[in-house]
Amino acid sequence: MSTVNIPRIVVAAPASGTGKTTVATGLMAALSARGLAVSPHKVGPDYIDPGYHSLAAGRPGRNLDAWMCGPQRIAPLFLHGAAGADVAVVEGVMGLFDGASGQGELASTAHVAKLLKAPVVLVVDASSQSRSVAALVHGFASWDPEVRLAGVILNRVASDRHELLLREALEEGSGVPVLGSVRRSAAVATPSRHLGLIPAVERSAEAVRAVRDMGGLIAASVDLDAVLALARTAPALPDAAWDPAAEVTPVAGRRPRIALAAGAAFSFSYAENAELLAAAGAEVLPFDPLHATELPAGTAGLVIGGGFPEMYVAELSANTALREAIRALAAGGAPVAAECAGLLYLGQELDGRPMCGVLDTDARMTERLTLGYREAVALHDSPLAPAGTRVRGHEFHRTVCEPGAGKEPAWGWRTPAGPRTEGFAAGNVHASYLHLHWAGAPQLAEHFVAAAAGGVS
């Protein structure tokens, strides 16, 4: 097997909240500004960071989740996403060694770095410390000898004097080179929302300015030549790039047209899902439910992913024509698959405002965050999966649906409190809070396209 060599680094941190998103996004923007083709990646299931990455790099931000997709697919998915790039920047998740709960290193940033054979750059929040930073970096560098912690970027540094103390301590106590020192800068902070950062797609011009400012800050604070030199030390990967066409069998005959909800209210989607739909024989047609008054002509199936419909509930509710079109499509028997935000949109009401009325459930916002990985089994046949199909996905929401499951629930999984059923698998409709990365279960795309083509009842 031939090897592929793409220069790459993993940007990690000791914990969340250190500024690694600002540093990683800034690196992508700064390297892109040099004329390099930068491939952006994010460890874990998060949808929001890749939106900023896409703005910074000018190409889709892609997720690398070893729990949902399997460790064996991480390098192939990376190579698929990074094809043609001069350098790849991979932003980590949480702390460097924090993996899926109860699974050791599985799906951690360290795990993905090892699978990619990539050097790690540690972003350290240096505020309120000096010499202690060396002990912290030494500990992270020595914890797992298979993880190559090859550089440090100091963040939230107070002054030149503070930087000097930090550099001296690290030179003496860790041996890990300092690649940059970033001063405190509230001007480029990315604002938070109830699920984390605000999606870039919602902020348009403001998001572009924020990414530009991140790039300028990092270009002025980090030795980009040293970062590139470090990225080029990554060895060639022996894996073949992931190929959606090799994962599914396309339907015979005419390509069914599948409408894919997009735009500000439904921006949570993994690029590979649409690629698998296309490879399975579909013509994928994105549309924006905030603005479209009808579904794309000839729609034979509908996929509605996640996002923040609760932030646009008035606009979505006011778009009566599209709501009626979606209800008619579902009533006519076309397959419909919805995740999280899509589930809310298909219900009767969201926070008291009318939605599509496809499902007999009402949704409302709460203060409680539901999140975590789920290993689920399909309890009933649906256009997305036959009964018995096992998948791995994740939940991340602050809404509740009442009821939370139909007479024919979509999924079942075990919790510490016992078995749980969730979602709706009512005939031709599959709707659930569970987010799925179809690269980990490509048969979902094949099954759905077959349903749209009339091959699945």
From TrEMBL:
InterPro entries per the record?
A: CbiA/CobB_synth, Class_I_gatase-like, CobQ/CobB/MinD/ParA_Nub-bd_dom, GATase_3, P-loop_NTPase
Give the Gene Ontology MF terms in alphabetical order: ATP binding; cobyrinic acid a,c-diamide synthase activity; hydrogenobyrinic acid a,c-diamide synthase (glutamine-hydrolysing) activity
EC number(s) on file: 6.3.5.9
Instruction: Tell me the cofactors it needs.
Output: Mg(2+)
Q: Part of which pathway?
A: Cofactor biosynthesis; adenosylcobalamin biosynthesis; cob(II)yrinate a,c-diamide from precorrin-2 (aerobic route): step 9/10
Query: Any keyword Oxidoreductase?
Result: no
List keywords of the entry alphabetically: ATP-binding, Cobalamin biosynthesis, Glutamine amidotransferase, Ligase, Magnesium, Nucleotide-binding
Where, if anywhere, are coiled coils annotated? none
Q: List the catalysed reactions.
A: hydrogenobyrinate + 2 L-glutamine + 2 ATP + 2 H2O = hydrogenobyrinate a,c-diamide + 2 L-glutamate + 2 ADP + 2 phosphate + 2 H(+)
Determine if ATP-binding is one of this entry's keywords.
yes
The record places domain CobQ/CobB/MinD/ParA nucleotide binding at: 9-194
**What's a GO biological-process term for it?**
cobalamin biosynthetic process
Protein family: Belongs to the CobB/CbiA family.
Instruction: Please provide the record's free-text comment about the domains of this protein.
Output: Comprises of two domains. The C-terminal domain contains the binding site for glutamine and catalyzes the hydrolysis of this substrate to glutamate and ammonia. The N-terminal domain is anticipated to bind ATP and hydrogenobyrinate and catalyzes the ultimate synthesis of the diamide product. The ammonia produced via the glutaminase domain is probably translocated to the adjacent domain via a molecular tunnel, where it reacts with an activated intermediate.
Other facts = The a and c carboxylates of hydrogenobyrinate are activated for nucleophilic attack via formation of a phosphorylated intermediate by ATP. CobB catalyzes first the amidation of the c-carboxylate, and then that of the a-carboxylate.
Q: What does this protein do?
A: Catalyzes the ATP-dependent amidation of the two carboxylate groups at positions a and c of hydrogenobyrinate, using either L-glutamine or ammonia as the nitrogen source.
Q: Per its record, how is this protein called by name? A: Hydrogenobyrinate a,c-diamide synthase
Please give the organism: Kitasatospora indigofera
